[in-house]
Design goal:
Length: about 525
């Protein structure tokens, strides 16, 4: 919290969802707030809403009634086409614009504002998709202009990206970092690049889910089940698409992909546009990837696990990844499995493979085992809650059913998928790590800020570099190498940041001299 000598007047232009949230936290942090908009009715509604939200905090006992009233009293509003207009921002130390996402409108706001504020007032934009540098290009003093990207709802999402344009001065960014802390928010710094930090780091989860769906490897509900139950995400990619709305997700996916000149890592999927055109936008239209009946998500039933505990077939486990094989063997031992421990599988044995970044076909052929009897199990993640079982086109359905019966039940669910280098979780997680690594490689943000932004901004269980360190950089590299070798698609090429740290045995947080 500030002391008296550091008292700040905080300007906000645009009294929509974001402008209101920013004005609210500034007033609650003890700052004088000037909130401006062209639309007088919107401004009145905004002020009433902010007052209601602040008073609700007092009702819940989170702040005192006196503090609530004082915070509300600190907010003044100004209709910009009436006197005093932009002159009302003259006392401000910082002004954040949160008007519509159009560069021409933002430029006109910037020019009007610069005519009234002092030369040391910071001017920031809350844009989420436009270039901060291009915004600043209309300024007389572009060094005092930066991005200040808050997330919706602002009072709850306590993260803000401080985005430095090409000409933004270090002092401007430093001051915005300090002000963010005064506001009770966690600042992360990013350079002015498409998607900044959070929206850039989010290019793996949804798009890789779509790629898996497009290829017919698994359906949307199975992909969501694996990513939540096995990989620990709060929501699967398709639940998230439905929550955000496919119209918005599609625009973000397309925009970042094209702004990065068709970078294959961010390539979206062709199945999205027709779904969007059909109005399958998600919760808000009652149907997206899921159907919502009275707002309740309808989840398609899973295939039952065959009741085949005793198949009479011994189990042979590949030892190519010795630790993964040991994990699987330990798990199967608790189910009273009979093992075939010979160097090569016996004629009647069920063959379990535990590949990293390879599909069943590739792993079975590399191992020289009979593909008809081979199934693959994803042993990268803990096996107890949900297992992913994968088969090749040659796998005998009877052997697949045996594998499913042996692995499932007793509280463990099994998702059976078609052949995929990296199953579901391995490839989605490896892509998250890889994109996080490349953000570090491009010096868009520091490793610590990348992790913080992803945990706070995207709600993932851990940031990409932490995730990569926990799984092991060498393992992530192996998964990506497998994907790259199979698809020959530069989408899966590992980031230089990852390759070097994996080869040198270093942490992904290691920045070097
Ligand atoms: P909104 O549509 O809720 O509000 C925009 C406000 O700007 C309206 O009240 C409108 O009357 C006002 N406005 C339009 N032209 C104006 C002008 N020339 N001068 C003054 N006021 C003007 O928009 P929202 O969602 O609050 O977004 C605002 C900005 O924040 C956009 O740049 C958006 O990309 C960004 N943003 C939005 C997020 C979201 O989840 N909605 C998240 C992060 C950033």
């Amino acid at each position: 919290m500030m002391d008296q000598s550091d008292s700040k007047t905080f300007g906000v232009i645009g009294a929509g969802i974001m402008g209101c949230g920013i004005a609210q936290i500034a007033a609650q942090a003890g700052m004088q707030v000037v909130l401006g908009d062209l639309d007088g009715a919107a401004l009145e509604k905004a002020h009433a809403n902010i007052a209601k939200l602040i008073r609700r905090l007092a009702e819940k006992g989170r702040i005192s009634a006196a503090d609530a009233e004082a915070a509300i009293a600190r907010i003044s509003t100004v209709q910009l086409d009436k006197a005093p207009g932009y002159a009302a921002f003259a006392p401000c130390n910082v002004v954040v614009e949160a008007v519509v996402e159009r560069m021409d409108v933002k430029h006109s706001v910037l020019v009007s504002l610069e005519g009234e504020v002092s030369d040391d007032c910071i001017i920031a934009t809350n844009t989420s998709s436009l270039s901060v540098t291009e915004f600043a290009s209309a300024a007389r003093l572009p060094e005092r202009v930066a991005g200040y990207h808050f997330f919706n709802p602002v009072p709850l999402m306590k993260l803000v990206e401080v985005v430095a344009g090409v000409l933004t001065s270090p002092k401007t960014a430093d001051r915005l970092v300090d002000i963010a802390r005064d506001l009770g928010h966690m600042p992360v710094r990013a350079t002015d690049t498409p998607g900044f930090l959070v929206n850039h780091a989010g290019r793996a989860f949804g798009p890789e889910g779509l790629r898996i769906l497009t290829e017919g490897i698994a359906d949307h509900a199975d992909i969501d089940r694996v990513m939540t139950e096995a990989a620990g995400f709060r929501m699967g990619p398709f639940e998230l698409f439905d929550l955000i709305g496919l119209d918005i997700s599609h625009a973000v996916m397309e925009s970042i992909y094209h702004q990065y000149h068709e970078e294959p890592r961010y390539r979206p999927a062709a199945l999205v546009a027709p779904r969007r055109a059909a109005g399958l936008l998600g919760r808000k239209t009652g149907r997206g990837f899921y159907v919502y009946a009275d707002g309740v998500k309808q989840v398609p039933a899973e295939n039952p696990i065959p009741d085949l505990k005793d198949t009479g077939r011994p189990v042979w486990i590949s030892s190519r990844h010795a630790d993964l094989a040991a994990t699987l063997k330990e798990y199967l031992a608790t189910r009273g499995c009979e093992f075939d421990d010979a160097a090569t599988p016996g004629p009647n044995s069920l063959i379990f493979l535990t590949p990293l970044g390879e599909d069943t076909t590739t792993a079975a052929l590399a191992e020289g085992v009979d593909p008809k009897r081979a199934v693959a199990v994803d042993c990268l993640l803990p096996l107890e809650r949900r297992l992913t079982l994968m088969h090749s086109p040659a796998t005998d359905p009877d052997f697949l059913a045996s594998a499913c019966g042996i692995l499932g039940g007793h509280g463990t669910a099994v998702t059976t998928i078609a052949d995929s280098p990296g199953f579901i979780a391995q490839r989605v997680l490896a892509m998250i790590v890889n994109i996080g690594c490349d953000i570090a490689q491009q010096k868009i943000a520091t490793p610590g800020d990348i992790d913080l932004a992803v945990e706070r901004g995207l709600g993932y269980p851990e940031g990409p570099l932490k995730l990569g360190d926990r799984i092991g950089p060498a393992r992530i590299l192996e998964i990506l190498d497998g994907l790259y070798a199979f698809y020959r698609d530069p989408r899966y090429r590992p980031s230089p940041w990852l390759i070097r740290r994996a080869r040198l045995g270093l942490s992904l947080h290691h920045t070097g001299p």
